[in-house]
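Pasting two entries for a bug report.
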Amino acid sequence: MSGETNLGVILANLRPRMVGQFVFCSVPDHLVSSLRMVSLATFRESEGTTMVLDKTAAENAGLWGPVQTLITLDVHSSLEAVGLVAAVTSALAAAEISVNVFAGFYHDHLFVPVSKATEAISVLKQLSADHARQH
């Protein structure tokens, strides 16, 4: 199944949920392979390898970085859906909440500051409710 592409349907069915706390960290090359199995996400950049690790795994490895709350949008959106990231990030920006977005095959995932997680959930639920009333 390829997922929903209709933006109105996607927004009406966001179903945001908090998953946990994760740390974005730059990982030294000698630790990358040993942390790959516990990493939620890995991205190689020219400056080094970024890993997103469960907060406890990062602490156990002696790594540090911004702690973020992961919010998953449980709607099955297509990778070809147009406008979802713009709508979500605009709503969060209006509430002055920073967000880092990761698109998985089935769902979109948002990383927000821990201190803003509850507010972010409220903003996303309101965005969804507003679109549900329209459809």
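Entry 2 (this is the one that rendered wrong in the viewer):
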Amino acid sequence: MTDGIQMRTGTRLGGRLATVVLMSLLPQSGWAQPRNETLVANIPPGYKVDAEKRDGNIVTREMVPEGESVKDWTEMFSTHVFSGMKDMSPDKFKEALRDRWFEACKDSHAATVADGKENGYPFAVWVLRCPRNASTGKPEITWFKAIAGEDNFYLVQKMFTAEPSEKQVERWMIILRRVAVCDTRLADRPCPKIEK
């Protein structure tokens, strides 16, 4: 576990479109049990970690299907930790991101998928669609899940460069539901045990 993210085997914001808006994670040196407040997210089956970095207080990890790279991808899954960002709500973040997305892509569409509390933390899930990204000429469809922790703010994204099938959407909604924040210091926000 490093920098508030626990990844188990098993963005850019808006991918190419919103590199304008965001940035990735330092290499993980082995699997440790979660400690303190932690984002728990699986590396999706068939995906690999292709980029990790830190930019100021933002730590990001970008994952793509085997055979693709962050420079040339059709799908991407990313996690972002905004260290120390305690005053941001998922709804406020969603609105700000939507406004920037709409500025960057004409005829975009947005839809809220879910919001509320999970494991005691406020969250929101939404989707943004760009019919044609000006830099790639391709569509861009991104699902976001934002979670406001007590210590940090967390964001995960699932991006496509083509309209996903119904089966893909169902699969990724299950994966996004499993993304969570936990805290080993709080009995009512337990972290899962990580099997080695």
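Dev reply: Rendering is fixed now. As a check, the viewer should reflect this: The chain has one domain: 5-183.
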